[in-house]
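Usage

Read records sequentially. Each one opens with the input sequence:
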Amino acid sequence: MIQNKNIVLTGASSGIGFEVLKLIAKDGSNRILAVSRHAEQLLASYSDNVIPFNMDISTKEGVDAVFEKANEVFDGQKIDIFYANAGFPYYEAFDYADWDRVKAMFDTNTFSPIYSYGKYLEHLDGRPGTLAYTISAIGQMAMPGYAIYSASKFGLQGFQEAIRLEKPKNLQLTCLYPVATDTNFFKVANPVPFEKPFPVQQPDVVARKMVAGIDNGKKFVSPSPLFGLSKVLMGVCPPVRTVYWALETAKLTRFKKKLAEMKKNGEI
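and closes with the structure output:
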């Protein structure tokens, strides 16, 4: 159990982040700076040891502001755990040219956690600390319908692989690889309902395993045993992955057909 720590948690007011918040705030011994764009409205009266902070972490200025706020609320003490969890997806066929739309995802999902690494090292100044990332299983295997999301998470996956070879010994790096998680992730990905990828896991399960992984000093946490098994199976027998991708591609095809019909009927 994580106790008596100063913790920064981004993406704290929904999904996996909120489930993690419930666990680390439970016994009251941790002080948590809970960051999201609407944290102060959604978490205003959550708990005395939770300090909500409204901030968009997709910019340099936003991340800098989080570290400044942490220094203030933790009375200049060390951030023991910095959990860069914030992120969002698109579910769509990537058949357009929109620089700003692509950049928005990379700003949040890739550039922000990478910049946070450098800021956290500076903050620690040789003291021990833990940096945690939510990378996602999709950062290890791309999926149809999630081209930009996959790319943003592959970028973070590549960063964590490289940084492990050079990071100082005082820093623990723990990365989470959830499969599709039953949160508002899917509503954010596209306002038009679509078929979820297989398998789907519950957020409380993901959060419990991530918190335990951080507490136990694990490098990697894969909450779904099925994902670990499938990686081995697909490595040994690549046609299994081909069949899986075909099934998920069929879902995207049905979604595109649904969108076309809705546009034709003036529904969107």
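Summary fields computed downstream for this record:
- The first strand starts at residue 6 and ends at 10.
- The beta strands are 6-10, 31-36, 50-54, 81-84, 129-134, 171-176, 180-181, 200-201, 220-221.
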